[in-house]
Amino acid sequence: MSKYLKKFDFYNIDKLLQDSKMLAYLKQFKTIQQKYDHTCGPCCALMVLHYFKDKRFALTDEIKIADIMGTKPFPIGTDLPNIVNFFKNNINEEKIYKVISSIEYPKDKDGLCFSSFDDFKTFVISKLKNNTPIIVENVDYGGHYKVIIGYDCVNDNSEEDMLIFADPSDFNDGDRDGYTVFPAERFFYMWFDDHCLSPQYRKQPFVAIEKIEKDEEIEN
Q1: I want to staple 26 with a disulfide (CB 3.0 to 4.6 A). Which of 149, 158, 164, 173 is the partner?
Q2: What is the mean pLDDT of residues 109-132?
């Protein structure tokens, strides 16, 4: 299969597409592959920490993070509030992380954070331009966490937009480099959890993590 694939270096995407005005992305985001079926959430957290050069956890510490998060064996995994609490409280003594999640985000009458695809698109691009990774969970594998690290406006037709993910379980494209792409609008309509999260958190689950510089104020 590999002979049919077009290899792209997403880690160095900023160097390859310096003049692109259509792409919002996180520069040099290192991926990690999860070692256990139930640790996609802790693995995503570990990727975010190392993107922010927070070295309190080694690259092999997903189980240590899973223990802190109270991650349960497959097929349950990590509930969304546990990831939020990890970044807001467990490792945030110095208040260096600002966390926005679908738990407290304003909802419409249907309980959705984003009523339309355009609302979602605007949110993702604004966060990426603010150097903010977005951990999302959706019905992939019944329930799977990955990190949005890029949004590509392919042309003026939003139906062709693409999301770039750091995926801790990258088995589907013949190259397990941890980077995957998926149509953005298609993801939006598949953005729900099937059975892993508590029922009240299953619609459009996300955790956006921003690192605050020391001279900035933070309100969590």
Answers
A1: 149
A2: 97
Rg of the chain taking only CA atoms, in angstroms: 17
Q: Is residue 11 part of a domain?
A: no
Residue 168, Cα to own-chain centre: how many angstroms? 10
Q: Assign residue 53 a region (left: φ > 0; alpha: ψ between -120 and 50; beta: otherwise).
A: left
Q: Quick one: 121 exposed, middle or buried, by C-beta within 10 A (0-12, 13-18, 19+)?
A: buried
In this structure, is residue 5 part of a structural domain?
Answer: no
The SS3 assignment for 185 reads helix
Residues 6+ apart with CB under 8 A from 62: 32, 34, 35, 36, 39, 42, 43, 46
Question: Residue 162: helix, strand or coil by DSSP?
Answer: strand
Token pair belonging to 58: 């080694």
Neighbours of 74 (CB within 10 A): 12
Query: Tell me, what CATH number does 54's domain have?
Result: 3.90.70.30
Per-residue pLDDT reduced to its tens digit, 160-209 = 999 999 999 988 776 778 999 999 999 999 999 999 999 999 999 999 99
> Considering the domain boundaries, does residue 163 fall inside one?
yes
Range of the domain at 162: 21-211
Domain count, the chain: 1
Whether the CB-CB separation of 88 and 97 falls below 8 Å is answered with yes
β strands within 85-142, DSSP E: 97-101, 134-138
pTM here?
A: 0.91
For residue 213, the model assigns a pLDDT of 77
Amino acid 116 reads S
Residue 112 included in any domain: yes
